[in-house]
Amino acid sequence: MTALVRNLAERAVELHNPHGSGQVVLVCEHASNIIPAEFQGLGLPQDLRTAHIAWDPGALPVATHLADLLDSPLVSGGLSRLLYDCNRPPDAPDAVPARSEIYDIPGNRDLDEAARELRVQGIYQPFRARLAETVAVAGQPVLVTIHSFTPIYKGVPREVEIGILHDDDSRLADAMLELAPRHTGLKVARNDPYGPAQGVTHTLRTHALAHGLMNVMIEIRNDLIASAASQREMAETLHAWLGAAIRAAAKDDRERGAACSQ
């Protein structure tokens, strides 16, 4: 392992509340916009290195507050997704994006196989391993990933305010969508502004679907979580909403199991 790979691996993943005993494992893949000095900002100006293309603004504080409320561990990314998007497999072209939204990423252009593999080994693999270990230690947890999205994408305003995303297993997403009016007046939608077709469910597929774990991905429009107060308020909303949805989905599972055994 090269020194650069070791240095990346030491910063690639953070674990908050590692001894949490709640039934949820939280994930925030795009928590950080940090680009180590060795990468010279990927050739981007400072304003783009702090923009949404580099991370999910507001997502980490929401996830951290939620982890504390749930007494659950939180696995989060420690480096910018422009270096490597930990919610993508190594063979995905946008795992190391040469272009994000309307912006070219000069430092990711024309990478050779060795340069790309360095990022896989230094960022993706440590993140994947830490999350897999956290899920295993938790037993049979519910997996919940927290993201934020930009209000305007490629010049087009987005009306959705909270997206409830899922892949093949929609148990928890279904319950959250059904219960949404009881917990928020915001506009909530299924698999919007992204969905499985855009490749955004890699973490769910790898760490939840592969093990039969209930799961959901939550996308929050980032203008709604721009302040410390709004981040805490969103976490409190999600705490109550998720708890009710997990109970409802678990009840449905028990009832289906009882019906199948008759």
Q: Bin the helical content.
A: 25-40%
> For the record, what is the CATH homologous superfamily label?
Zn-dependent exopeptidases
Query: Compute the gyration radius: what is it?
Result: 18 Å
Question: What structural category characterises the helix and strand content?
Answer: alpha/beta
CATH topology: Aminopeptidase
Structure notes:
With 262 residues, the protein is of the alpha/beta class. The radius of gyration is 18 Å and the shape is globular. The chain has a single domain, classed as Aminopeptidase, CATH 3.40.630.40. Helix 3 packs across helix 7 and helix 5 crosses helix 7. 40% of the residues lie in helices and 16% in strands. The strands form 3 sheets. The chain has a 7-stranded mixed sheet, with helices on both faces. It has a two-stranded antiparallel ribbon with strand order 4-5. Strands 7-8 form a two-stranded antiparallel ribbon. The relative contact order is 0.17.
Quick structural summary:
The protein is of the alpha/beta class. It is built from seven helices and eleven strands.
Which helices and strands, and how do they pair?
Elements (H helix, E strand, L loop, with lengths): L2 H9 L1 E4 L7 E5 L17 H4 L9 H12 L3 E4 L21 E2 L2 E2 L8 H26 L3 E8 L2 E2 L2 E2 L4 E4 L5 H13 L4 E3 L11 H6 L7 E7 L6 H34 L1
Parallel strand pairs: 2-3, 2-6, 6-11, 9-10
Antiparallel strand pairs: 1-3, 4-5, 7-8, 9-11
